[in-house]
Structure formats: C-alpha cells, structure tokens
Amino acid sequence: MTDVGYVIAGWGIAAVVLAGYSVRLVLRIRQAERDDAPRNVKP
Amino acid sequence: MERDELLAPIVRRIVGVLTIVSLVALVLFGLWGAPTDEVQGDAQRVMYLHVPSAWLAYLAFFITASASALFLWRRTRADVWDRVAGASAELGVMFTGLALVLGSIWGRPVWGFWWAWDARLVSTALLFFLFLGYCALRRIPSSDPVGAAKRNAIAALIAFVDVPIVHFSVEWWRTLHQKATVFNPQLNPEIHGVMALTLWIGTIAFTLLYVYLLDRRYRLAVLEHGRADVELAHAIAERTGVKAGVT
Amino acid sequence: MSGTSLWREAAVVAGKDLRIEARARVALGQILPFGLIVILLFAFALDPDRGVLTRVAPGLFWIAVLLATLLAVGRAFAIETHHNARDGLRMAGLDGGAIFLGKAAAIALQLAVLEVVLGVAVIVMYGVDVHGLGVVLITATAATVGLAATGTLYGVLAAGLRLRETLLPLLLLPVIAPVMLGATRAFEDGLGGVPGDAWPWVGMLGVFAVLYTTIGVMAFGALWEET
Amino acid sequence: MSLVIRLRTVVCLLGRFPALAGADLDVAAGEILLVSGPNGAGKTTLLRLVAGLLAPYSGEAEVLGHDLYHDRLAARRKIAIVGHETYCYDDLTARENVEFFARAAGRGTADVDAVVDRVALGDAARVVHRGLSAGQRRRLALAVALVRGPELLLLDEPHAGLDALGREVLADVVRDAPGEGRTVVMVSHELEIARPLATREVRVDGGQTAAVTPMGATMTEPAAKSTVSAPAVVPAVTP
C-alpha cells in the first residue's frame, strides 16, 4: 500500500469526527432525558 | 404539527442497523475491496470518504434551507421545521469540515500540495463559513421563541441564496483567468467497477448516518425545549407565588 | 403599503441617519481614516518597490472597503441604541422595508464618499492608472449597493443580540465574498486590463445588489421586530 | 363600546424570566388608568407589551383591535409611549427629533410647532439632545409621543425627573386626553400626583394584575364606560 500515512490520517480523522459527534449526541440525549424524567414533562 | 420524535422507533431502528451494516461494508470495500488506483495510488482511498462527505454537505444545507422556507410559510409553520433546519445545519457544517480536511489530505500526495485554489474547494470553504455563522446565530438565546425561529429561518435562506452566487463567481474566477490545472483528465481515469461501487456504498452509508443523526439531534432539541418549558412553568409558579405571598 | 409612502418613509430614515452623521462625523472622522491607515499598512506588508502594490491594488482597495463596511454597519445600528432609540424607531410606525431602504441608502452614500477618497489614495500612493473610468464607476456603484444591502440585513439580524460585534463579521463576510471577488476582478479589468472584460462581473454584482435589496425590503420588518 | 386594551392571562418573557405571569386587563376608550405596584412587579413590561414592543408568550392580547401576536406594527401606528428614555438621537436638536417622528407619521410642520409649543420647550428646541437638561428631556419625550397624535398614550413613570413646568404640562396633557379622543395608561410611583389625574387604578404585582383600588378621581365623562367586567376590574367610583 502506498501513501499509508495519508490513508490512515484520512480514515482516522473521519472515524474520530463521526464517532465523536455521534457518541456526544447520544450522551447529551441521555443526560437531557434523565433531567426530564423526574419532572414528568411529556405531554 | 408537533412531533416528539422525527422517525418512528421502528424506522429509526432499521435506519440504525442499516447505517452500521453499510459503514462496515464501506470500511471493507474502501480499505481492501477496491483496487489501488493506478495513477493516484492508495491515497485515492480517502476519496471514498471525501466524496460522500461533500455530497452530504450539500444535501444537509439544502434541507436546512427547505425546512426554513417551510417554517416561514404560514400554512406549514411548525416547530418541527425550525428544529430540522438547526439539526441539519449542524450536521452539514460537520460534513463540510470533514470534506475539506479529507480533500486536503487526499490532495497532498496526489497534487503535491495541501490546498489548491480550485473553484470547488473555495466555494466549499465559503459554504462552511456561511453556515458556521448560521449555527453561531442559532445558539444565541431569545425571549421570543417564535421571533427567534423566524429570524433563524430568514438567516438560513439569506445564506442559502448566496450559495449559487458564490459557486458561479468562484467558478468564473478560476476559469476565466487560468485554465484548470487540478482536475486534468489524466487524474480522472475511467473509474473501475469496484471503485464506483465503493463510492456508492460510501454515499449510502453517509446518507443513512445523516438521517440517523438528524433524528437524534432533533430529539435533543425537543428535550432541551421541553426542559425550557418546565423551567418556565416553574418560574411562572414561583412568580405568582411571590405575589400570593405579598397580597 | 403603497409605493410612494415606502419611498417617502425611506427618505425620512435616510435623512435622519445622514443628518446624525453630518453632526457626529463618525464615518468621516473615524471610519475614513481607518480605511486610509489600512491602505498605508498594505504598503508595509507588500514591498512598494517591487510593483506588487500596483498589481494587487484593486484587491487591497476592496478589502479596505469591506472592513470599513463592517464599521459603517455597526455604526448605523449603534445610533439606534442610545436612549433606546431602537424602541422609538419601532414606535414611529414605519414600514420595515422603508427602514431597510433608508438605512441601506445612508450606508451606501457614506461608503461611496469613502470609496472616492480611498480610490484617490490608491491611485496616488500605489501608482495605479485608470483606463476605463466608466467600468470602475459602474462596478463601484453596483458593489456598494450590494454591500450596503447585505450589511443592513445582517446588521439588523445581529443588532438585538449579545455578541453582535463578533457575530456580524462572521455572518457578513462569507456572504459578501462574491462582491469582493467580482469587484476586484472588474477593477483589474477597468484599471489595467481590458475594460470590456469586466461586464460579466458587473452583471454578477448587479444581480447580487438587486437580489439582496429585494430580500432586505421583504425580510427586514420581521427581523426588526426581534428584540 | 370597544375595548382599547384587552389582556387575558398574558405571559410575557424577558429572557427566560416571566415578567408578566398571567396578567388580565381591560381598558375602555377615554379612560385614564393608573398602574401602580412595587418595583419589579412587571409594570414596565405591561406597558411595553401593550405598546407592541414585546411579543406575548401566551394568553390573549389585543390593543385597539389589533392582535399583539401578529399585528403589532398596525397597533403601534396608533400608540405612543413615553418611557424612561427619550427615544431621541443625541446629535439632533430637540426640534429635529420631534420633526423626525412627525414626518415618520406623515405629519407636517404645523403639528411640530403645535407640540413644541404645548410642552413649552421654547428656545431649548434648538439645542441638541445631549445638551438638554433632565427636565427638558422629559418634556421632549412627551412631545415626541404627542406629535404622532396617538389614540393610546402610554406613560412610564412620567413624573420621575420632571420639573415644576413639566408637571403642569403633563397634567394638562393627561386631563385633555379624553376630550381629544385619547386613552391614557400611566405607570407611576408618585401616587399622590398621579391619583388625582386618573379615573381608575390597577395594581400590578408578581407579574399579575392584582387588586384594583376603587378610587376617587377627577371623573371625566367617558370614564364611566369602564364598567366592563373582568376579573381584575372594578369600576371607578366618583367621590
């Protein structure tokens, strides 16, 4: 394989960005649901 | 129309599973299945991520603009569109940023430089900043939720109207004064069958991922809004309670 | 709202803004000198002896104008903040489109004066020759209208918000990037090149100006309502 | 008989704070309503909401027949408000400021002359706003409001910072209002000055319109129409 560094960098950055965003999103949703649950907001 | 969830749970689950399957397929095809490009070498494998990212960037901003228009039109006005617009813009900025970085990483070994003043590159970079500003605007809180949503929708449309102008002006700029050097035909040989297939897999995988993340981002917006509502109800109760205590 | 009263109200607003400028001299006393200093600093950054300045003069001129536009827009909305004048203007019962046209016209006029002075400075200091004066003037007019329209639109978008000073450049600069590009190319053709080559760019600037003026007249009211 | 102001359980937010938390108010044409209440009660917010400067968050809100959710601009064309600030431009003279608001409302020089005269600005009319004294500024604020010939005049603490001349001018303006077909709503702390002018008093507290104090007033004829019943409304009583 040629240009291994560039391939690793490209796929690595994409994986980190996409996974990072997804995980953070899921965690924020969990946190928000936990905050909401005791107050019983859902209409 | 008021929705707690964008997608029905069963649809979301299916989209989620398909996203994972297609992403795994993309990794397998992109890193092993597709043959090494004769001219560009293995650096071309970055393209399997770059092209889908760029496609998603345009799709996401198109959806932001459409949702904003639907919000502004009285007959279809609903919080759904405001939230979809915001969620899609955030994802669009992420995919645009990714497309720029990946394009740069691909360009270094293939072109020999990190950045080129190529029409598509420049207009994508401008697009990134256009909607980065929009996202910054959205984050500023307001006392008038409907007014703020209207403001955001107008801002999205003003920015979107600029996209074709940016595109054509940059295109003219780079073609009127010098011949395109970057996309010379030698670098774009006929695409191998498996390569084309891999690009398709990448596009489908990223689109599914976009749909899934859009649904999740929408859910977060609904939850945050719900929390704001609860806080407001508490504040009103507290305020009237104070009054009751005085009189 | 009838057409004549739109223009009448716009003239009232523009007259008010220009009269304030005539008294306070902020554009003349601060923004204009700022533009001149920028023109001077470019000469420090790019060695004046190698002829670089003459070649890139159009671009430097428009960058200076762009930076001045940011200041002029900020100033145009700053005069509505003292003594809560923004509320007063809202209570004045003016149509949103009229306020937009009035404020944009006042900004455009101030920018035009600024461009004349900066233009003379560039011609004198950078040693630029003007071949096609007509092209240059038409380009400047179209670009100025476009800058004033987008500036006013984004000015009001950011006006009521916290962080408006930092938000305005981020919102405005990407949108007016095509103006920068088109006006610079047209100036290159009009100054040293073939003036006839400039017309596509002038056309683009014209479309930009008309488009954003129209959007401004339609959308300003809704944005102005936002507190 | 039409209501000039009609509010039903209106919530109005300042940021995330419910400055009005379920306010009710009915005001009939020709009334001179005094709004009293402690600091932070929501009096100014109430006035700014009625002026069409703030959007209601929930509840029903109508002023001069215009819905405050969608039609604030149309309502504002018939309303003037005198706030804590003058709404004027520092670099323009008092007269130029009045002229600007007159022209914006499509009125001419004669109206400007009349109003400048009415608030007794005299030579101060030719002084730029930043050079005016506090008392002159208060009278200018009144002139700017009056020059538009509003159907509804809103006064927010009009007595604060007012000199003796200003008090006289203000009292005349308020007293003449019903005869000129004008309804007045004023917020004031200085009850001993404001009460004699008013035909009715509403107390605001905790973001709600609370008890209404039946009060003696210099009853002018149209105020008798304020018997429109609403939870927080008690008709004015003649002494």
Describe the structure in your own words.
The complex is a heterotetramer of chains A (43), B (247), C (227) and D (239). Chain A has 43 residues and is mainly α. Chain A is built from one helix and no strands. Chain A has one helix at residues 4-36. The longest helix of chain A has 33 residues, at 4-36. By secondary structure, chain B is mainly α. Chain B has a single domain, classed as Four Helix Bundle (Hemerythrin (Met), subunit A), CATH 1.20.120. Chain B is 77% helix and 0% strand. Chain B is built from six helices and no strands. The longest helix of chain B has 54 residues, at 193-246. Chain B is globular, with a radius of gyration of 22 Å. Residues 178-187 and 243-247 of chain B have low confidence and may be disordered. In chain C, helix 3 (52-78) packs antiparallel against helix 5 and helix 6 packs parallel to helix 8 (199-225). The model of chain C has no long low-confidence stretch (mean pLDDT 91). Helices cover 83% and strands 0% of the residues of chain C. Chain C has 227 residues and is mainly alpha-helical. Chain D is of the alpha/beta class and 239 residues long. In chain D, helix 3 (94-104) crosses helix 4 and helix 3 packs parallel to helix 5 (134-146). The longest helix of chain D is centred in the middle third of the chain and has 13 residues, at 134-146. Chains B and C meet through helix 4 and helix 5 of B and helix 6, helix 7 and helix 8 of C.
The main β sheet of chain D shows up as: 6 strands, mixed
Q: What coarse outline of chain C follows from CA principal-axis ratios?
A: globular
Work out the largest interface and the residue count of each chain: B-C, 32 and 33 residues
| Mean pLDDT reading of chain D | 85
Q: Class by helix and strand content of chain D?
A: alpha/beta
Global Rg of chain C: 18 Å
The largest sheet of chain C is:
none
Strand content of chain C: under 5%
Number of strands of chain D: 10
The parts of chain C where pLDDT drops under 50 for at least 5 residues are none
Measured between the Cα atoms of the first and last residue of chain C, the distance is 24 Å
Report the C-alpha radius of gyration of chain D, rounded.
17 Å
Q: Describe the oligomeric state of these chains in a short phrase.
A: heterotetramer
Count of runs of 4 or more consecutive helical residues of chain D: 7
Task: State the main characteristics.
heterotetramer; C: 227 residues; mainly alpha; 8 helices; 83% helix; D: 239 residues; alpha/beta; six-stranded mixed beta sheet; four-stranded antiparallel beta sheet; disordered C terminus
